Structures are given as structure tokens and as C-alpha cells.
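Hey, why these numbers?
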Amino acid sequence: MTNSGGAPAVLSVGAILGDSDAENRAWKLAIRSVMNEVIEAREGVVSPLRVNVVYHVDGKLAPNEFEGVRTGRFSKKDSHLMVQAAVPPGEVSDRHEVLLNLLREAIDEAESFARRKGIAENLASIRALVDSLEP
């Protein structure tokens, strides 16, 4: 997702759904809610690294091949990193809480990446954005 200048947004959220069943649809709605919160909260936030968090929801058509979070593509030109976050299988009591926890883990992973690559010591502005989201 890009901002009006064409550069990627400081933080964006997406999803890959592994099926079209009721469980995946419920996750899709919860992810859309987090996505909308991020869009509202990111106005005016700047960071040396832009982060795209893609939630992977397990399913028969596209099963998750990993757990937790992992880095994906990095565009040096845009300083834009994709972090993949595997939604855990099984019943959960609060999808929103699970997604926010994965988002925090994704920012931890992005921050570690930024330090390793010499991009930034921390991603404090993005972390503050995530911490401002509704619990």
C-alpha cells in the first residue's frame, strides 16, 4: 500500500487467506479492522524503514508453512520490508488481540532487520503507532 507520494506507507497490513471457510472469513474481518486502525494511526508518522505486515491465515488451499513471524521481501530503493505473520491455528478467544500481538512481533522482527542492515537502531515511531492501537 502506498501513500499519495507513491512511496510505501510507513506501516501497512495485508492478508493471505488459506481458505474461503467461515474461520478464514472471520480472520479476514478482524484483519481488516486492524488494517483500518493502522491507516488512521499512521498519519504523519515517519520511519527510516517502512514495514508491510502480511498475516497468513492457515487453510486447506494455502497451509501455513511457518509459525510466528519472519522477514520477507526487502526493497532497498523504498526502504520497505515485508514481514510475514502466521496466524496460529485453532480456536482463539480474541482475534484482535492475537493480531495485535503478531503485529508487535512483526515490528520486533523488522527492528532487528533494520539494526542488522544498518538502517536504524530502532523503529520507535512505528512501535509507538502499534502501541497506540486499541487493545
Observations:
- Helices lie at 22-41, 95-116, 124-131.
- DSSP finds three helices and four strands in the chain.
- Residues 95-116 form the longest helix (22 residues).
- Residues 40 and 133 are 10 Å apart (CA to CA).
